[in-house]
Amino acid sequence: NKRIKIKHLLDSGKVGEQVTLMGWVRTKRSNKNVAFIALNDGSTIHNYQVVADPNAISEDLLKKVTTGACIKVQGEIVASQGSGQSTELTVNTLEILGEADPEKYPLQPKKHSMEFLRENAHLRMRTNTFGAVFRVRHALAFAVHKYFNDKGFFYIHTPIITSSDAEGAGETFKVTTLDLKNPPLNENGDINYKEDFFEREANLTVSGQLEGELAAMALSEIYTFGPTFRAENSNTTRHLAEFWMIEPEMAFYDAEDNQDLAEDFLQYVIAYALENCKEDLEFLDKRAAEEEAAKKADQRSDMGLLERLQFVTQNSFERITYTEAIEILRNSKPNKKKKFSYLIEEWGADLQSEHERFLVEKHFKKPVILTDYPKEIKSFYMRQNEDGKTVAAMDILFPGIGEIVGGSQREERLDKLTQRMDELDIPQKEMWWYLETRKFGATPHAGFGLGFERLVQFVTGMGNIRDVIAFPRTPGNVEF
Ligand code: 4AD
Ligand code: MG
């Protein structure tokens, strides 16, 4: 008989059926008369109880059934006597596929610290927590594609290697095949990139937006979903050097259409996870509750994970302008005793994460769409508003996360765009291809970028972004 997955067995296995399971041993409890093996194959958060009779299975074989070992068992589904499960497997044959020396296997059946598990990222997906996180991550990725596909958006693959710095923040990773110990030099003594692979400087993309805009000027509504790279040296719980971004871009949308889409999209993918990842989210909800309980009373969130996810899908987001936000912040304190560590004195200052969190978690107690930022603190491509001071930007702020989405209506007017590029010293010559969309068949359009890991963090309740991507890339971390 063929192998079935534990998820399938739990959903539709029948008492009396003969089945084969393969998976990794979580624990074994045994005495002279019986051995109970908790088996997990990653298809579900649940382990399946496998019961072996030491008189039927050789002692040598049973000895090798240790935490971490991979085994194959064939047997019959029977009603379970125990309280934890309704059925279990009585073993007829057992085979060791891969041993795991109990003296050396790092994951013991106990609670390990998150730091320890990060150092063992090659094995941590075998724990309940990480199994749940990566199943939810998968479901969210699937929901992203489903949402846009159902709406008639086309998935565009934008380049990973490029020569542009879309955000203009200068945080790119260089791509070169030159021998940097002994590079070719030009007359000025600078590295001669004409001799490099691409015959010019190249870098990893920080955003697929600019190419996405080109696609939207042909296919109307598109989205990208790919890896992006930023060499910002921020060692925080919200930043990765390599993260996945979803960037829809829509012709004929204005700023408000963009906000409506972003809100609907976020509510959809979160509702999808609630509907399709019930057991994993219930597990993560309990886990998050334990973490909350360990915090100081004034830092605890007043909602549980599941409660917060439901709340976000059922209540509309607050929409306010930057100018309104600044007014609120000037007249507020994070709590009775404390002031903000950074006070916003002047209109034009950028918000810090303490301000964003205050607005979302204390003031409005719901997601906030912040719009119409000063043009000085936003990118060159954002559409300038009539006031001459602000641009049609939006950031979406989420509880526990802060900024989860950044977007805007784009500047489609060639004269305004080139004027802004000149002010910011962005060479028009290198961006000729981008400017051509403003010369030929230009139209109002808008889009946004969702940091996928920040979404996964929000939905799973994981406190550190390094724990929602299988192999996090952060300063100093690139081993595996
Ligand atoms: O606000 P950002 O920089 O916007 C853009 O890149 C635009 N081109 C998007 C667009 O309009 N198409 O980044 C968008 C989102 C942020 O809101 C955040 O969620 C995430 O990407 N993000 C990061 N996530 C993890 N690690 C980092 N270092 C991130 N930087 C940005
Ligand atoms: Mg941003």
Q: Main sheet: which strands, in order across?
A: 6-10-11-16-15-14-13-12
CATH topology of the largest domain: BirA Bifunctional Protein, domain 2
Radius of gyration from the alpha-carbon trace, in angstroms: 27 Å
For the biggest sheet, the summary is: 8 strands, mixed
At the fourth CATH level, what is the homologous superfamily of the largest domain? Bira Bifunctional Protein, Domain 2
What is the percentage of strand-forming residues?
15-25%
* Amino-to-carboxy terminus distance: 37 Å
Mean pLDDT: 95
Domains (count) = 2
**Series of secondary-structure elements, N-terminal to C-terminal:** HEEEHEEHHEEEEHEEHHHEHHEEEHHEH
Q: Which percent range fits the helix content?
A: 25-40%
Give the strand tally: 16
Number of helices: 13
Short characterization:
With 480 residues, the chain is an alpha+beta fold.
Give keywords.
13 helices; OB fold (Dihydrolipoamide Acetyltransferase, E2P); five-stranded mixed barrel; single chain; globular; 480 residues
Structure description:
This protein folds into two domains: 6-105, OB fold (Dihydrolipoamide Acetyltransferase, E2P) (Beta Barrel); 126-171 and 206-467, Bira Bifunctional Protein, Domain 2 (BirA Bifunctional Protein, domain 2, 2-Layer Sandwich), CATH 3.30.930. The chain is 31% helix and 21% strand. It is built from 13 helices and 16 strands. It has helices at 6-12, 59-63, 114-119, 128-150, 209-219, 255-276, 278-293, 305-314, 322-330, 353-363, 414-423, 432-439, 452-460; strands at residues 18-30, 35-40, 48-52, 70-79, 87-98, 154-155, 161-162, 174-175, 202-204, 221-229, 242-251, 318-321, 368-371, 393-398, 402-409, 445-451. Strands 6-10-11-16-15-14-13-12 form an eight-stranded mixed β-sheet. β1 (18-30) and β2 form a beta hairpin. α4 packs across α6, α4 (128-150) crosses α13 (452-460) and α6 packs across α8 (305-314). The structure holds 4-amino-1,4-dioxobutan-2-aminium adenosine-5'-monophosphate (4AD) and magnesium ion. 4-amino-1,4-dioxobutan-2-aminium adenosine-5'-monophosphate (4AD) binds next to β11, β15, β16 and α13.
